[in-house]
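Budget justification, computational time. The allocation requested in the original proposal was used primarily to generate structure tokens for proteins on the priority list. As evidence of use, we reproduce two of the resulting records. The first is shown immediately below.
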Amino acid sequence: MPELIRADSASHRRDAAIDVDQFLCDGFALREQLADFLELTPAVLEQRLGASCSDLAALHPGAVDFDPLRVGAFYEETVGTGHLLELAAWHLGSADYIADTLRLQARCAVGQVLDFGGGIGSHALAAAALPAVEQVWFVDLNPHNRAFVAERAARFGLSERLQVCRDLHDPSLPSRFDTVVCLDVLEHLPDPAAQLVDFAARMEPGATALLNWYFFKGFQGEYPFHFDEPALVERFFETLQDRFLEVFHPFLITTRAYRLRPAGPR
């Protein structure tokens, strides 16, 4: 069952507004909330954030020894709270870039929104605050990520509009979504093409998908948890071009917007 956040918003402090300006200011009170959640002092948190990428990479057995069938277990069990720290460091250090992804989401997100692999919840929280959005479904394998996002939503009084689930097999999820958000996730999957097919099957005819990817292990192997096999990447792009049509947007970011390709001859 989804982990429905039922906390009374009146009993929780609203940390700050949920808009792009506030994200640029403090990442939606990210440092404070993460320090509270992890029970760290601000000084220790800064130390952990600075080493978070290398710490997370050190948990990975490496490209040669990594069994693709263990990807789920790696993110659900092995990374622990280290993934929260790595994601937080990325969001805080790349705020201008992520702000544009939030602006893009604000242009596109409506109705039932799926945030797949939502991490620390920046996009889920922002989407839940949009007037055109009915419900946000935050899906993430990592139980620490889910607990942290649940706590963040309660602080912002967004509990009734945001539900957290482990995976897309949860029976409480809608059969179809009006918006799909999947950022910085596809490169971590052993079969990203199959994930595109799953998304297409769960999208309403007029739905929009916001996607990005980085199929590269890094120039110095700093991203061992990314898949980059040429055949895998080729299948991904073949599937993307077969199932989706790109929709122009004005932001200079790697995130792209897509609609389903119409059925019939092209």
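The second record produced under the same allocation is shown here.
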Amino acid sequence: MINTASSSDSLFRQVTDSIAISILSGDLEAGALVPTEPDPGAGFSASRSVYREALKYLSAKGLIEARQRSGTRVAPRSAWNLLDPDILRWALAGKIDEDFVRNLYELRLFVEPNAARLAALRRTPEQLARIGAALTRMEQNPPYGDAIIEADLDYHGSIFDAAGNPALTCLKSVVVSTLLWSMRLQRNKDPSLFSVPLADHQRVYRAIEQQNGEQAGTCMATLVYDALHDTIAALRHERSGAVTGISQK
């Protein structure tokens, strides 16, 4: 028996993702008219009700706006909240330029060294153990695989939690989304290259373990700088493969 509720939710997400990615990637520019009826050539078969619910959702997210006499249009970029997890996910799923990546890592550079500094000063033994356990999984699993990605996300998330600042923790989802995208982009890297980011993570952990806040912040800044370099290199490699026809599987 088909679960119609589940099918409807899946179609809603498909329609919403398709429109949102078109907006975030620039295929639908600010001010562009957004059809209020489903497009038969869009690659999915959505009812009017599902399509309109998707538009309402995107309107609530600030990506589109209904204007009297001029229809439903893409909202100006200034109205987009790029810290919203859904909007960031859509942005990373579309066409990415290096400036956008640098902006995300610039945000990480403002946030994560301070999170590491606070974590070193405030962490409990239990919180330190969670950070250490995530690091151990990074050390023991094959580089750039799913287990490493999961461990890396847990490592950074646990540092945010250990910082003991609920306002700062609200930014954790931005870091996690960026990390997840970046790590997936690097799946095909030479495993031997993982020694550099692993060493960065180990240095941050040792500083937090020793409750050296300044050292933890400095080491985390180095980690973010190195991660930006690796991500830009992976992005350029992916683009090079797309241009030359090299498989990225």
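A brief technical remark on that second record: Confidence is low (pLDDT under 50) at residues 243-249.
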